[in-house]
Specification:
- It contains 5 helices and 14 strands.
- By secondary structure, the protein is mainly beta.
- The strands form 4 sheets. The protein has a 6-stranded antiparallel β-sheet. It has a 4-stranded antiparallel β-sheet with strand order 1-2-3-4. Strands 5-6 form a two-stranded antiparallel ribbon.
- A hairpin with a 5-residue loop joins strand 1 and strand 2.
- The longest helix is centred in the N-terminal third of the chain and has 22 residues.
- It is elongated and about 75 Å long.
- It starts with a helix and ends with a strand.
């Protein structure tokens, strides 16, 4: 066999194999295309499997079949920038939001309308475009990782109000929540609120406690009702190392946790995260030193409507836990 011809074949084979491997890691089921009304521009979205447990988003843009933007990673802009602002970092630094997103649906819309400007060179302006909305769900990942100084070490409330802005930005974490243990440095309402503030599908609750410690405390209905995963999460208010107010939704129910540091404070909670026009039954659990009970947690049950403002008086190292259930 001709040696030069053999070298050319080997070189060609080496060039082809990487191209084939690159094509194979494209998840064809995620491929979505959007064209301009005249068909000249074509936007293509798809996802790639990067390694064994990572999926990332990519896109290309062409004009009349000529590349304008070659394959590039597609990012995600998070609208709620409370955590990023508290840390003083750009909003798009949390790259993990772009990974392991599962495409769950696509919506398309066409628009072709005209409108008249108040002034300008044209009497009418035409709006003609095609629109595509991609819906995603965060893919499966670790259920929880510890890597946190929780109730095994009994930290104070200031430490606990730092965690939502730091460690929990990196993902779920098992704080190992205590309730009855006498070494806890914070109030019982503070401990209750952690279940809504701290996210972890695998969360060890009643750490260091035993079943016989439970004496039918009403406020623990909050822990009984709280789910392990959420449909929506919203950081409502807070400041790193000072306090945090976190809302989470499962189905139609909303759970809110409010925690302060070692200083008492009053927090105004506006319930505009609830569905507009709906009424809810609120189960509110707050610290109350005047109660003649061992946990000193007051339970309040009242009807409210979405948008109502609530005043939470948080004692030092304290908190509040709220459960909103829609009324029919």
């Amino acid at each position: 066999m001709n040696v030069n011809r053999m070298k050319k074949r080997i070189l060609l084979l080496l060039l082809v194999i990487p191209a084939l491997l690159k094509a194979q890691d494209v998840m064809t089921g995620t491929r979505q295309e959007l064209t301009s009304p005249d068909g000249a521009y074509r936007f293509t979205f798809y996802q790639r499997a990067v390694g064994e447990d990572n999926v990332q988003m990519y896109y290309t843009l062409t004009y009349k079949n000529r590349p304008v933007i070659e394959e590039s990673k597609l990012g995600v802009l998070i609208e709620n920038q409370l955590f990023e602002s508290a840390l003083g970092v750009p909003n798009d630094t949390c790259h993990f939001w772009c990974e392991n997103l599962k495409l769950t649906g696509t919506e398309r819309r066409k628009a072709d309308e005209t409108w008249k400007p108040v002034y300008g060179e044209r009497a009418e302006i035409r709006d003609c475009y095609n629109e595509m909305t991609l819906k995603f769900k965060k893919g499966e990942g670790d259920g929880a990782q510890e890597g946190i100084r929780g109730n095994e070490e009994m930290p104070d409330a200031t430490h606990n109000t730092v965690l939502p802005y730091t460690r929990f930005l990196a993902g779920a974490a098992d704080y190992t929540l205590c309730y009855f243990n006498g070494r806890v440095k914070n109030t019982k309402a503070h401990q209750l609120a952690m279940a809504a503030v701290y996210y972890s599908p695998l969360q060890f609750m009643f750490w260091y406690d035993r079943p016989e410690f439970y004496k039918g405390e009403e406020e623990l209905e909050f822990w009984k009702a709280i789910p392990s995963v959420w449909d929506d999460s919203r950081a409502l208010d807070g400041e790193i190392g000072e306090y945090i107010v976190q809302a989470r939704c499962s189905g139609n129910d909303w759970f809110v946790g409010a925690m302060t540091n070692t200083e008492a404070r009053t927090v105004t909670l506006t319930t505009d995260f609830l569905e507009p026009g709906k009424k809810y039954m609120l189960h509110l659990y707050e610290d109350d030193d005047k109660l003649d009970t061992r946990t000193k947690v007051r339970s309040t049950h009242k009807k409210i409507k979405a948008g109502d403002k609530l005043t939470l008086k948080l004692k030092a190292s304290g908190g509040a836990a709220l459960h909103f259930i829609p009324l029919r």
